[in-house]
Amino acid sequence: MDKVIISCAVTGSAHTPTMSPYLPITPAQIAEQAIAAAEAGAAVLHLHARDPKDGRPTLDPDVYMQFLPRIKQSTKAIVNITTGGSTSMTLDERLAGAERASPELCSLNMGSMNFGLYPMAARYDRFNHDWEKPFLEATKDLIFRNTFGDIETIIERLGKSHGTRFEFECYDISHLYTLAHFLDRKLVTPPLFVQTIFGIHGGQGIDTENLLHARRIADKLFGDDYRWSVMASGRSQIAFGTMAAINGGNVRVGLEDSLYAGPRKLAQSNAEQVQIIASILRSLSLEIATPDEARTYLALKGGDQVGF
């Protein structure tokens, strides 16, 4: 068994500032938490940007450039920039930060889907900012769009033009088959970094049978040509990561996916979540991959080839 790659999704776009005072918002906060997560054992840092004035999601390249160089100077971790952004962004907006940064790795959602954040709007009596509640409620009638054409465009503009490879985010079994379609067409090449995602409202549910079924289908479609990773939202983050590791997979944690470090206990940093899963992995006699080992496993271009 290879060593386990820990990815840390540092801030995301699903949670809003009201939900946790520990959610990193400003470039300085994102850099600080990303660096600490890497020091705790994360080989991959999955990064979104936020407007430093009010915390709303942004993919403004100028905001990215306020924290990416600091992260590179302070850690050898692999920077993985989102191409998802949020449901309200256009494709050009979603690619702007990644095209400026030319990173080693980018996320790539493998299909259009309902992405329902709206149930979270009812959990809070008041919000810190006027944009938060409408942003959440709007997802009841929005679809996250990634058509076959969109996926081809992302592969062309980032993969072929920048040498960037992808974290293929698969929220459903159908997304695995979509990835197989692009592999058959030789538009993507092994080793594939397949992130199977559970618990998003509109995607596959948090169920052990779903986890194992996703692994079986990925094995059937990709054989030895992929590296499997698992992310589960909310309270199942650590449990599903543990099951993935036991079954030969890699894991993703971070405040993008869960705000907690235990029952009703807010995580005070991304590093805290990384430390929890790293401790579990070591107790299972599993070794944690360094950034350079993860680069080898994923066949990345190297940190000296990025644009920041």
Could you write a compact summary of the structure shown?
With 308 residues, the chain is of the alpha/beta class. The chain has helices spanning 27-40, 61-64, 68-74, 91-101, 132-137, 148-162, 173-184, 208-222, 237-246, 270-283, 291-298, and strands at residues 6-9, 44-47, 49-50, 57-58, 78-81, 105-109, 113-114, 143-144, 165-170, 192-198, 226-232, 250-253.
Which descriptors would you attach to this protein?
single chain; 308 residues; alpha/beta; TIM Barrel; eight-stranded parallel beta barrel; two-stranded antiparallel ribbon; 16% strand; globular
Detailed description of the structure:
With 308 residues, the chain is of the alpha/beta class. It has a single domain (6-305), classed as TIM Barrel (Alpha-Beta Barrel), CATH 3.20.20. It is 38% helix and 16% strand. The protein is built from eleven helices and twelve strands. The protein has helices spanning 27-40, 61-64, 68-74, 91-101, 132-137, 148-162, 173-184, 208-222, 237-246, 270-283, 291-298, and strands spanning 6-9, 44-47, 49-50, 57-58, 78-81, 105-109, 113-114, 143-144, 165-170, 192-198, 226-232, 250-253. Strands 1-2-5-6-9-10-11-12 form an eight-stranded parallel barrel, surrounded by eight helices. It has a two-stranded antiparallel ribbon with strand order 3-4. The longest helix has 15 residues, at 148-162. The mean pLDDT is 97.
